[in-house]
């Protein structure tokens, strides 16, 4: 080994086994060279030198303070004395702990200690290997006299015996020649003060780190020698093939600058592995493609290197095909294979391409373990009935932010699982050759021309995770959680709330694959200003729309839409164009074409048949309105109210509301009769009689308030009865917002546009019912099939800056609520709106009618003394919950639209449900 420094600079093949970067083989130490000192940007840098050699000064000059972990500092942490050698054991435990945490987080770390003893270095090399980063040694070999002078100049080291420095020097010089064998990937030796002072540390990007390349990309699955299919796929992707004089494809260029990325296994099994290699090698050489190594390339490379390998699994055919090529081509293939890395991290870290899959902890790492997993995957240690290894389902447990696209394990069709995608669709076995367009997440495939190689077992969905893999995990939701949202930052979910949500989700909620969203709670408007005169007349208000208009005006919202509030149950409707769409997009079994569920995720109906009848009507209306094509989607997610209220509140009505009404009807007639008789006898009970008459009237008003929202399902509903119809089995659905479609969240679409789309659905239903009536007025079957299901949502736009418009809004609300109507919801017309300071504006404020509120606050709440007490209600927590749940709902819709894995969507959905268990006055 010669003296001096070395800047590691191998070409692409440095990650391959031949170069030793992932196999752990050391790089040699070169002689004197340039001033640049190469250090991988993710590595463990170990400074080695005697005390006084300048390690701390060197570290401070070339690295950030947070990157350096010093043994002296760790001694001080545990003993308050940086030179207390008795504390070294504890100090190095702390040092190793900090180093491990930094490496696990993907941070370059520098260890500032003498490190002249082999056993101390061995622990650091083990740490580097545990975290799959290369260990780098930087040796500072400074003369003994220099070290002694520097120690003498330090008050805390002035008395250091000379023999300590001499021992360090002996151990250092006895170690230098062994560092590579100890496992250090790169060794830099700096002799003397001049060399130490004259170097510059240069951080080198890892060969697998291509985060700066943002695409767009076309990731191509396992080709396995199927050249004709590869050419057909590239043509379908829009690439223009370039051919040599012999007509062979040697390059392919996309007119829009897209880059192809091959997941490996270019060779074996198919009819023309040399043709595939010629094309892919040309694309890589010209910068039009990237390629990672597959296990078949690895095996072929060992064969070309003269090593003994078994000619199985198609290698024999490839060797025979290559034998017909010239020596220069075979040499080029060998060099190309040596240059293939195990995986690439692309597009800002959002895309990882490898051959057999890769857990998040290995992304961007370099070690033999990482390379082995990327090329071969992992197994359970078992074999199946065909004698093949059973793959470990790593994708079921994957929770990384980066999409992992891979191949290796043939599957009949490509499908996403937890943000991972297997693209090996068995082309050589007669399946398809598949590519992924990124970032579009669009799959493109071409069929195989024929079965080129008989598979050992039939193709089945057995890629890691599989079609039936476990999509969710308890660890995704248990304990205290923090959810990162785009519209409100990080939102916390307390452990006790998560436990309550888990109880509901696990016992009562529907299939989580059909539960992509939960609606937020609705904030009440500010309490109405008191009016003693109105209260005395019994006309006081607890809630009034002027407060809602004023709130939005203060937030800078000029236009609001007042929407009629239907007294029903909040319902979310997921409707797919067909059962096939539900199966393909949401992974649900046959027989389900969507879902209708409550705001806590429970199915509205106990039987699937009722749900499917309702979904069928909505689906027909969407089709008739032309929204499938207009919105370019095979499914819709709608927010709605389902009526009657009694449909889901029967138990509440019987045990609470009806019981109160029955008690009042039983008690008041007798009480009033007795008081009236007493008054007739001349007893002075006038005041008491008036009071009891008022209470009886309030009780009657209470009963009237809830009765108007209740009717028997299957009988006539109020609106249908007036028209002489039996109603749509008594069920009415009032949709008021389209939440999402394929690839797009609609939460920011203005409410006026939303309601216009809803109106088209209602018009479509009217047309469908008219056609059904004209075609078969006497047709057999339930009349409910020909009665309306969809209910309109009346609305009024109000200018919050215009007093006349505000007055019109108040008058409209008074008309809505005069006979007991629930009231209205006031929303910004612009839907997703922020205040000038960037905070979210409440998405909606409910303003409930005076008579309706008897259901909430009791029959006598309008009495002046009760109103005065109720006006002291505290709204802050409820309004905070409404905003947090709204932000989480938006996040769920965004993740759904982005095609993120189910666990990511459900992270936000579950958080909404958890927040609903926070204690708050239920009357708000």
Task: Describe the protein.
The strands form nine sheets. Strands 8-14-15-18-20-19 form a six-stranded mixed beta sheet. Strands 3-4-2-5-6 form a five-stranded parallel beta sheet, with helices on both faces. Strands 13-12-9-21-22 form a five-stranded mixed beta sheet. With 924 residues, the chain is α/β, with parallel strands linked by helices. 43% of the residues are buried. The termini are far apart. The chain is built from 29 helices and 34 strands.
In short:
Residues 1-36 are annotated as: Disordered. This protein is α/β, with parallel strands linked by helices and 924 residues long.
Mean pLDDT across all amino acids: 85
How many strands, what sense, and barrel or not for the largest sheet?
Answer: 6 strands, mixed
Helix content: 25-40%
Query: What structural class do the secondary elements suggest?
Result: alpha/beta
Q: Taking Cα atoms only, what radius of gyration do you get, to the nearest Å?
A: 37 Å
First CA to last CA: what distance? 79 Å
What is the number of beta strands? 34
Count of helix runs: 29
Low-confidence runs: 1-14, 16-31, 461-469, 715-728, 777-784
Using the alpha-carbon principal axes, give the shape.
globular
Strand content of the residues, in percent? 15-25%
How are strands sequenced across the largest beta sheet? 8-14-15-18-20-19
